[in-house]
Specification:
119 residues; mainly alpha; 7 helices; 0% strand
């Protein structure tokens, strides 16, 4: 299964671009872009957004997110739950994000959750 960096490299190469071209367009260093493409590090939410805009693809595509009915919360899971003060603080930050950044955060959460299940 291809990882985020593999998809980024494939997108760049399919457009016959050099890493320096993409890095300059995104105002990041070539070293940072290279670390993304080699799956050494992951982009920040802002950089993920810029990569999606640059390549004209969705975050779901880059993060390989395919929601199935099994991924959606069941009615039982929708029951009220106790939220800790720390969780409330995190939710307050989330609520202040714009729609695109919320989508990116949800995508990353699903990605990390699926990786956790594999372990």
């Amino acid at each position: 299964m291809k990882q985020l960096g593999d998809r980024l490299r494939d997108l760049r190469e399919s457009r016959n671009l050099k890493q320096t071209d993409v890095a300059n367009a995104l105002c990041i260093s070539n070293k940072i872009l290279s670390s993304y493409e080699r799956n050494i590090s992951v982009p920040t939410i802002d950089n993920l957004k810029h990569l999606c805009e640059f390549y004209n693809v969705s975050a779901d595509y880059l993060l390989q997110i395919e929601l199935s009915k099994a991924d959606l919360p069941s009615e039982e899971a929708a029951a009220p739950m106790v939220v800790s003060p720390e969780q409330k603080k995190i939710l307050s930050y989330y609520e202040r994000l714009d729609v695109e950044n919320r989508e990116a955060v949800r995508g990353l959460m699903i990605l990390y959750y699926k990786e956790q299940l594999r372990k």
